[in-house]
Amino acid sequence: MLELKNISYTVDEGDNSKTIINGLNLKIDDGKFVVITGPNGGGKSTLAKIIAGIIKPDEGQIIFNGEDITSLSITERARKGVSFAFQQPVKFKGIKVIDLLRIAAGKDLKIPEACTYLAEVGLCARDYIDREVNGSLSGGELKRIEIATIIARKTSLSVFDEPEAGIDLWSFQNLTRIFEKMRKDISDGSILIISHQERILKIADEIIVIADGKVTKQGKGEEILPQIIGTDSAVDACSMLTNDGGNK
Amino acid sequence: MEMDEIQKRLIEEVADLHDVPVGAYNFRANSKLVGRNTTANIDIVSKEDGSGIDITVKPGTKKESIHIPVVISASGLKEVVYNDFYIGEDSDVVIVAGCGIDNCGKQDSEHDGVHRFFIGKNARVKYVEKHYGSGEGEGKRLLNPGTEIHMDEGAVMEMEMVQIKGVDSTHRTSTAELKAGAKLYIQERLMTHGEQKAYSSYDVVLEGDGSSADIVSRSVARDDSYQKVDLCIRGDAECYGHTECDSIIMDNGRVLAVPALEANCVDASLVHEAAIGKIAGEQLDKLMTLGLTEQEAEEQIINGFLK
Fold first, then answer.
1. Is the CB of B290 less than 8 angstroms away from the CB of A73?
2. Residues A82-106: tens digit of each pLDDT
3. DSSP of A120-147, one letter per residue?
């Protein structure tokens, strides 16, 4: 279980300071598929980075499986079972897909096993295993590889920061199937996805709406979704064509 | 072949050899010849003045290899060697050269090797050169390789130049001239640490129509080391040239990249790319979210970069 207690985070902007997260409280139960949504600039991605340890909050506590992890580094949190998929997958020179999967799995992964992770995200392993994780891969391919690294880790908490960002509509349709499968296969671990996409919101056990650095709504998916549909917290896939998926 | 353990270890580092290789070879240790083998198609003879060797590959020789490693394990030894390669038309060979210096003494040890290549029409050469230094002595380990390449029509040469450990100072000078349709691919990998200094310059002239050169230099400068990389391509004909100089700096490392392109023909197409910077923070973050420590993440990024 993940619990965030009274988290605050402020950044300096020249002479002014801007509060991104403002005394936020949140609980994510085990075995749940939770989607965080809300208007752009509301603090969702910052929150995801705070959970992963990439950003340190100014105030508050993060409790993970009963342990206070607030002061732990990115590495320590990762080793305790927190996984984080970047909104913009990071590119490397010379590091191959197989290398990244091996690092993620924390062992000398054999090729057939690596292939199963790639197959889960819809990539033909033979074509990708020896490719470098660099700009020669498309946004959609990088995204899938990013997700494969999270699957390979098999941790108790997986956080995905806007998996729909930066990919085309066709790739997105395929991606949602991966999340639908994850939803089906979920056991003890929990999955936390930041997304505006109706198709992702529809399969959520729980939806959390964050605006102005606070939780403004939280509840079962079927209760919250009707309240937010049609707003920029829940867009259908076609609107990605006109507004870039709300990714600004 | 008579070699001690240090010499064997150096050979392993510079030539990936655990045993005597198949094919032609010439092993040199502490300025003395310790082993040589020639084949029906590849001849190796010492120059009359003793300054080096001539390697001659018969036209049409296919899928043969030549190993010419040099090791120095004596402190205070300085040598200058000239090796000339005559590669016959339509042949296809792999040449593995390299120099390892182990200096446990107080005096500097130095190897200056000049390799000249005369590559015949439509011949293909893969050339791998590794440099390595070890030893705890105060004496410096100095390596100054010179490479001179003459490529006839349609010849293809792929070069890998690697120096990633233990060489205190290196001045690397490479020149090439390419006739019509010749193609040259160079991959350089360089890492300096401590107080090391490395200078590497390439001067490539694309003389003939349809010739092309692709030079990619990747380097890492750590601690207080310094690197200067000059990549110069001149296009005198309808040709294509590309250079890329990509460096990671760490600690107090310094890098000076000096790209130069000169087009003397309206159909010459020349491109240069250069980038110097520290390891991107997000690369470290990504690998740390996969469970690596910051130091482990750094190693992975550098290993990949220099692969």
1. no
2. 999 999 999 999 999 999 999 999 9
3. HTT--HHHHTTSBSSTTS-HHHHHHHHH
Q: How far apart are CA B269 and CA B275, in angstroms?
A: 21
Q: Which candidate from A83, A93, A106 shows the least CB-CB separation from B289?
A: A83
The span from the CA of A131 to the CA of B91, in Å, is: 31
Amino acid identity, position B113: G
Residue of A nearest to B248 (CA): A93
Instruction: Tell whether A130 lies on the interface with B, counting CB pairs under 8 A.
Output: no
Q: Verify whether the Cβ–Cβ distance B304 to A95 is below 8 Å.
A: yes
**Looking at the partner chain, which of A90, A106, A153 has a beta carbon nearest the beta carbon of B286?**
A90
May I ask the CATH architecture of the domain A2-87+156-246? Answer: 3-Layer(aba) Sandwich (3.40)
Interface predicted TM-score of the whole assembly (ipTM), two decimals? 0.91
Give the dihedral of Cα atoms B11, B17, B23, B29; nearest 10 deg.
10
Interface probe, candidates A80, A90, A132, chain B, greatest B C-beta count within 10 A: A90
| Interface membership of A56 toward B (CB under 8 Å) | no
Q: Give the start-to-end residue ranges of the domains of chain A.
A: 2-87+156-246
* CB-closest option in A78, A94, A106 to B289: A78
Q: Please report residues of B whose CB lies closer than 8 A to that of A82.
A: 289
Helix residue spans in chain B (DSSP H) = 5-15, 281-289, 294-306
- Using CA atoms, how far apart are residues A22 and B188, in angstroms rounded to an integer? 51
Question: A83: which residues sit within 8 A by CB, 6+ positions away?
Answer: A150, A153, A155, A157, A158, A159, B289
Question: Which strands form B124-134's sheet, in the order they lie side by side?
Answer: B32-37, B24-29, B62-72, B92-102, B124-134, B156-165, B183-192, B211-221, B239-249, B268-277
CA of A93 vs chain B CAs: smallest distance (Å): 5
Half-sphere exposure of B107 (CA within 13 A, CB side): 9
Say if B281 is an interface residue toward chain A (CB within 8 Å).
no
DSSP state of B48: T
Put simply, whether A134 touches B (Cβ < 8 Å) is: no
Specify the amino acid at residue B94: V
Residue A247: pLDDT above 70? no
- For A115-134, write each residue's pLDDT tens digit: 999 998 888 888 899 999 99
Interval B81-128: pLDDT, tens: 899 999 999 999 999 988 888 888 888 888 888 999 999 999 999 999
Within 10 angstroms of residue B142's Cβ, the number of other Cβ atoms is 19
